[in-house]
Amino acid sequence: MSTISIDKSTGPSWGRYLLLLLPYIMVALQWGLDAVKPDNLVYEVPRLGLWPFLETHWTYAYLHIFTLVPVFCLSFDRKVAFHRFWPALLPAMAIVGGLFIIWDAYKTAVGVWGFNYEHLQGWNFLGLPWEEWLFFVTVPYASIFIYACLNAYFPGDPLRAYDKPITFTLIGLWILGAIFNLDRMYTATTFLLAAGFLLYHYIYVPNTYRSRFYRSYAVILIPFLLVNGVLTGGMTENPVVVYNPEEFMGIRIGSVPIEDSVYGFLHLFGVCYWMEWFLEQKKVKQGEKNA
């Protein structure tokens, strides 16, 4: 697997840090100005089917089992040897997951989204059900496993030549989406942060893995949308996760708000970034030890 190497000569450090902080500053301003309408969560969503076995307090827990157990068992495959990435992956998941949990807890508290306890066990911490906390473990673990598998079994980088157009198309779409939806907290927050982080990454991080992540995320979207389809009510009488319709665009992929796909990209690309950084640090230390 290719690892990260940040080219510090690209620009002054203050410029790099300012670019990284700018979307967070804009989001903080947006959060301060946007008054969220309370008690406005909607349970009626497009349904793709009805799976009776999901009508239980264990729905979200079932999804974690379905997501994690098969992938964990395959983590010891000789070619991928995913377990060898744990020392880099686990702290990467903790760093990014910690930030997303703060975001998640705040948005839940102000009423941007919420949870239907018909499908949950009811054990909360900081206003979030335990199943939501576990989301930031099982989903990145399984998703980065797909990234590692593709790199191991298909080591080429077919999208490398298209890195620039793909990157700036995504950045442009997300910036425009944020500008035209500044009054929608979920949309504006997600699009601004995703665009800002991707722009930072393109300018300051050489493309040793970015286009490979694009390829991987196109594959990851398939199980991601399946799991999120259950969470957002595509296969149950009522959703597990419910949204305030005034805080997102209302465009859905099946039952999944389109913002979820950008949220997922930001989350997983962040985990990938830190994992590759930790792998690079290990490589540097080994080089110094052998010198």
Question: Describe it for me?
Answer:
Helix 3 crosses helix 4 and helix 7 (210-231) crosses helix 8 (258-290). The chain is globular and about 60 Å long. It is 61% helix and 5% strand. The protein has one domain (9-290). It has helices spanning 13-33, 59-74, 86-110, 130-153, 163-179, 185-204, 210-231, 258-290, and strands at 113-115, 124-125, 128-129, 241-243, 252-253, 256-257. It contains eight helices and six strands; from the N terminus they run H-H-H-E-E-E-H-H-H-H-E-E-E-H. A hairpin with a 2-residue loop joins strand 5 and strand 6. With 291 residues, the protein is mostly helical. A two-stranded antiparallel ribbon has the order 1-4. Strands 2-3 form a two-stranded antiparallel ribbon. A two-stranded antiparallel sheet has the order 5-6. The model is unreliable at 1-11 (pLDDT under 50).
The biggest beta sheet, please?
Answer: 2 strands, antiparallel
What structural class results from the helix and strand content?
Answer: mainly alpha
N→C terminal distance: 23 Å
Give the helix level as a range of percent.
55-70%
Catalogue the unreliable spans: 1-11
Count of discrete domains: 1
